[in-house]
Amino acid sequence: MEKPAPPPALPLSRAVAPRLEWMSQAGSTNDVLVMAATGPSAADWPDLAVIATDNQVHGRGRLGRVWTAPPGRTLAVSVLLRPRGASGDPVPLERYGMLPLLAGVAMARVVGGLVETARIHSAHRLAKVGVSLKWPNDVLIGERKVCGILGEMLPGGQGLVIGAGVNLTLSAEELPTPTSTSLLVAGVEHPSPDAVLAGYLRDLGTLYERWCAADGDGVASGLLDEVARVTGTLGRAVRVELPGGEFRTGVARGVDETGRLIVDDSDGGAPLVVSAGDVTHLRHDDQGNGETR
Ligand SMILES: Nc1ncnc2c1ncn2[C@@H]1O[C@H](COP(=O)(O)OP(=O)(O)OP(=O)(O)O)[C@@H](O)[C@H]1O
Ligand SMILES: O=C(O)CCCC[C@@H]1SC[C@@H]2NC(=O)N[C@@H]21
């Protein structure tokens, strides 16, 4: 029988995280961390504690969707957040809506840095492609999804677990959907799980500390500006599926202080304020059937 691979040492990531557990296999890292952070040893799981694996077998996406990943090709990471403001009081729950966006900004920066470095060093003259955030939870390279983010509240509002799945070394044939991509496919030849994880945790930590110091205020912390800068959804035509199943179209105008998307209704009605809806980008020439997901 083949010997299991030894766990990666992750020196860069361990230097950043207050606690980091690497699992050789996990069902869903979000589930594992929620259990750990609310179980009998909850006190051993500090703010910004991390669980990660490259072999997640029951990954979950938003809205009951699945996150699929062949073993060893993607990074699944969950981070525990127990946000407290400047006075030490918990940040109000209604401000948590910014946290998945905060994670998306951190991931977009890391992915953007790697893709740009690969482009500069490429012998193949790779074209410049933008890395952006698709509200509320995807990081895209060009129009393709390289990372999905899922925030889940701890029971009793004791905090939040924020999970991210990043496609590292999937080949074009292994991609789960026609609209996904991986760092490898985007030209990053040897994406290191440790470098990606450490970069993500570092940026996440910095943005999060600033946000907590401002008591979760998106404007005062500068987070809202940062979100607006990287969110490719803004200014674009989108189709919104409201929780009741109804569809509306319009142009995404902004993100508000609680992380909701503001969409100018193309029918001229009042702006749509979307928190639980599902958003699809429409192509510029879209007539309703050419969406990119
Ligand atoms: N490894 C992966 N890489 C990229 N996409 C994936 C991967 N695994 C699953 N997906 C896609 O992610 C979806 C879950 O994410 P999500 O709920 O964000 O939907 P989406 O298709 O990205 O569309 P949207 O976010 O616009 O609603 C799954 O339905 C699947 O299509
Ligand atoms: O695209 C989405 O809808 C979100 C996908 C989130 C996947 C990550 S992988 C780590 C964490 N554990 C999970 O089960 N899901 C998230």
UniProtKB/TrEMBL annotation:
Signal peptide: none annotated. It comes from the Bacteria. One of its GO terms (molecular function) is biotin--[biotin carboxyl-carrier protein] ligase activity. Pfam families: BPL_C (PF02237), BPL_LplA_LipB (PF03099). The keyword Amino-acid biosynthesis does not apply. Residues 15-212 form the BPL/LPL catalytic domain. Its EC number is 6.3.4.15. InterPro entries: aa-tRNA-synth_II/BPL/LPL, Biotin_CoA_COase_ligase, BPL_C, BPL_LPL_catalytic. One of its GO terms (cellular component) is cytoplasm. The keyword Ligase applies. This is biotin--[biotin carboxyl-carrier protein] ligase. Gene3D superfamilies: 2.30.30.100, Bira Bifunctional Protein, Domain 2.
